[in-house]
Amino acid sequence: NEGGEKGGLFREILTLPKLLSSLAADAGPEMDPYKILGVTRSASQAEIKKVYKRLAKEWHPDKNKDPGAEDMFIKITKSYEILSSEDKRANYDRYGQTDDTQPYGGGRYGPRHDSFHFDESFFNFPFNGKNHRDFADSKYTLHFNQYVNDVVPDSYKRPYLIKITSDWCFSCIHIEPVWKEVVQEMETLGVGIGVVDVGYERRLANHLGAHRTPSILGVINGKVTFFHYAVAKEHLRQFVEDLLPQRLVERVTDKNDLQFLNSWHDLNKPHVLLFDQVSVVPLLYQLTAFAYKDYLQFGYVDQGLSETVALQKQFNINTYAPTMLVFKENTDKPADIIQAKGMKKQIIDEFMSNNKFLLAPRLVNQKLFELCPVKQFHRRRKYCVLLITRDEETLSFGNQAFLSFASTNSKEVLRYAYVYQQLQQPLCDILMQNKDSVVILERRNAAGKALFKPVTAWNGSEEDKQCLVDELERLQKDPSILVHDAVLPELNNEFASMFVIRWIYASYDYLAEVIDDILHNNWREMMPLLSLIFSALFILFGTVVIQAFSDSSEDKQTKPKAKDGTKAENGSPGTAASSRPPKKSFVEVTELTDITYISNLVKLRPGHMNIVLVLTDASKNILLSKFAKEVYSFTGSLTLHFSFLNIDKHGEWMNTLLGYAHDAMQIDGDEGDGGSRKMDYTGHVLALNGHKKYLCLFKPVYTGEDLDSKSSEDEGVTSGGRSRSSSRDDHLPRKSKRSRSMSTLQIHHKLDRLGLWMERLMEGTLPRYYVPAWPGLDKITPCK
Fold this sequence. Notes:
Blueprint: H1 2-27, H2 33-37, H3 45-59, H4 69-84, H5 86-95, H6 120-123, H7 144-154, E1 160-165, H8 170-189, E2 192-197, H9 202-208, E3 215-220, E4 223-226, H10 233-243, E5 249-251, H11 257-261, H12 264-267, E6 271-276, H13 283-291, E7 297-302, H14 309-314, E8 323-327, E9 336-339, H15 345-353, E10 383-389, H16 397-408, E11 414-420, H17 425-431, E12 437-443, E13 449-457, H18 462-477, E14 484-487, H19 499-519, H20 523-558, H21 565-570, H22 575-579, E15 589-591, H23 597-602, E16 609-615, H24 620-631, E17 640-646, H25 647-660, H26 662-668, E18 685-689, E19 694-698, H27 721-730, H28 732-740, H29 754-763, E20 769-770, H30 777-780
Parallel strand pairs: 1-2, 5-7, 6-7, 10-11, 15-17, 16-17
Antiparallel strand pairs: 1-3, 3-4, 6-8, 8-9, 10-12, 12-13, 13-14, 16-18, 18-19, 19-20
Helix pairs in contact: 3-4, 4-5
């Protein structure tokens, strides 16, 4: 029996796949998308799309009342979804599968038999009963061009609420009731509604940054903001309120009502006050304020506050219904009023449109120029009376007189405005000459063409008013009196914010968007920005590291080693410094005076030397130019400084210095003359080590006259000093002869061998003459 039981159990297990297959067949019979659409297997995508559009229109449940229309429409949509996708179509052609995750087909020919499963979507079929998908979404469907051309420009007047959805999105079905309720409410308030189907508008979905369904986002001022909270009516309503800019509506009480109403001349706008019982500003009023923010200033008065009682009594406000007042130039009396218990958007829009402008506003931008409408053939002509004034005092006598004239002579066909000549100079140059005047004009087209006539100079007198009345009466009878025509330039935007302020606002918005993306893990959108940031940091870090290693290697080359104690003690700059290429394209040479004496010599840093050229006023320009050429190749050294000493001013300092250096005095050879002859030091160069208190001396070599003579640089070493001294004594007459003929030589030849001398200076082979101390400041200061 035990074997029989096992065999029976085995047979039951074998029949289980057949049972599941029969259940799958009963649940959903095999679907052939080619037969449903009526196309062949070789049909192109264009043919399939054309047939699908025709069948979808024919079997749409809203148009076809057949009981099986809904099921047929589902099959048509599913068939098109399979055949329009190359992967799904190839999968069906190869295996006969339609979709592994949907009840159609079940995976009969698939390689896995465990793909048959049940989930809640199987029992909650999206198109059955009351939970069926709302086909009314079709009227809100957005396309890419429609979004770019219509929605984005319109988002500067009203916010948009957009839902991202797709076919067979079961999560989308769950939010449908809330979405439908919110749409009905928001649409009546003036919020724009849109629906984007990812399956058909993938380009628009990518443009919006929506990569999953369902998603809800808001668009305002062209900026996209995603909704990240639970889909509930209250949350979506708050989301729309948060989209609107701050301070659209100002809270008005008895304390700030005068300040609010009297700002009409600064803002150049009428002011609207809404009186209501609720403490929170109604969303309808906020949306209205956003739509008309360029034309009107909005305030809200909470009638439930004790701080608003006086304001309610002043304007006799009814506390049982919301009341809206419009104030223009007269802040004591409203220009218009509306009161109703249930204010509708249409009524409010009409009320605002009729009160968009002051009685006589100032033209501050091109948008405000619509006050003067363009002539249309099927409508009555309308004229603009324009005051051009140089007086920028709003309450001046002339402006007040013009405002008074506008209030007493208001007509449907007349509009009044004024401009400041200095702020709208291009327009005023066309319409007037040199003084304040009133011009009547008629705009002929939107391109700027207008007919006009200057009427009278204006100072606000009764004669000016009467002259203007007469011209307006003539104009009603004969429009041809507007004899001048011109193309008016576009008005300057006087209220445009500075570039820096706009840049700050744009940066703030961008940072806020980045922070929002980070907080809600929208990493796909953040990847380009993060890649840019990390690339910039990598480049910056790499540059800094390379520069640091480069500087450290240069420091190691210039830093004297402790082993080379001999040269370091002698104060030689080192040969490495001479091999350093120059860092500048010029030689910086400073004058050695009483001001620079301490820093350039006395307190010169250890290891540094100052190369000083001795010159006169007459030879200054020539010697400095030659000096710069000779020492330019050594300017790369960080231990060398270059200066010049004017011997005409500081000859005493030079004599005192060489008097300290006895060896140097022996070189000068002044003993032969008994010190009576004044030595000419022009062209001498001193290498001064301020810390070690020694100098090296270069004396000019006159290559133009005696090429065979040796320089008195003392080319020998210290041990040979005695022989050199005797040699100089032997050639003393010859040297004196050369001194007498110095004036015949060109001055610039004096420094011909300075470059070779600098080479030996850098090598440390020149003799050094030590001094006990540097001459004092009294020696360097020129005599007065």
